[in-house]
Amino acid sequence: MNLPRIYALLALWTVLLLTPALLMLAGLFGPIQSEIPISSTIILLWVGCYLAQFFLFLGIMAKVGEQRLLWKMAASLLPWAIDWTLPLSWKYALLWVPLLALINAWVVAVTQRKESLFKNGIRAVGTVLEVMKPWMNVIVNKVYIRRNLRLRIERENGGLPYEGIFKGLFMLGEIPSPGDKIRLRVDPNNPLRFEEERKSRP
Fold it and tell me: pTM of the prediction?
C-alpha cells in the first residue's frame, strides 16, 4: 500500500469538496442571492466536482481495503451541506473544515493500522467453521457481498488454535464454505485483530 499516494488522494478529495463553495464565496460567479437563478456554469462546476470527489473517494476506499458506510455517506452528503452553507458565510468553515480534517485523520489512521498489520502481523491460517447468516444481504458495488465467518485460527509461530469472527467482502458466488481456508495476518498484541492477506479485491 502506497501511503503517500493515499495522503495525496485524500488532499485532492478535500480540494474537490471545497472548490465550488470557495469559488462562490470568493464572488467568482457574482453575488449569490436567493431570488437570482443559479447559472448553468455553477451547476456544471458543482456536478463535475461532486462526481469527481465521489468516485475518487470510492477509489481511496478500494486502495485502503475498506467499504465503510459512514465514509460513503461523507462523500455523498458533505458536498450538499458544504455548497449550500459555505457561500452564505465563511463562518460555516468553522464546522466543515474540522469535520473534513477528522474524516481524513480517520481514513489515515485505518490505513496506517492496516499497513502495520500487514508488515508486522503473524501469518496464520483460518479454517471456516461457519458462514454466519446475515439479517440482510449487503451487496457492495454490485459485485461483492458482505459475510461474517467464524474461523478456527492457527498461527504459524505456534500457540493454541482459537476462534475469531472474520468480516469480509466476497465476490458473488465465491462465498467460502465450512472447511475452506483463508490466509491471515494476526496482530501479535491482539490475536482477535486480523486481516486477510492482501489480494486484488477491495
Answer: 0.69
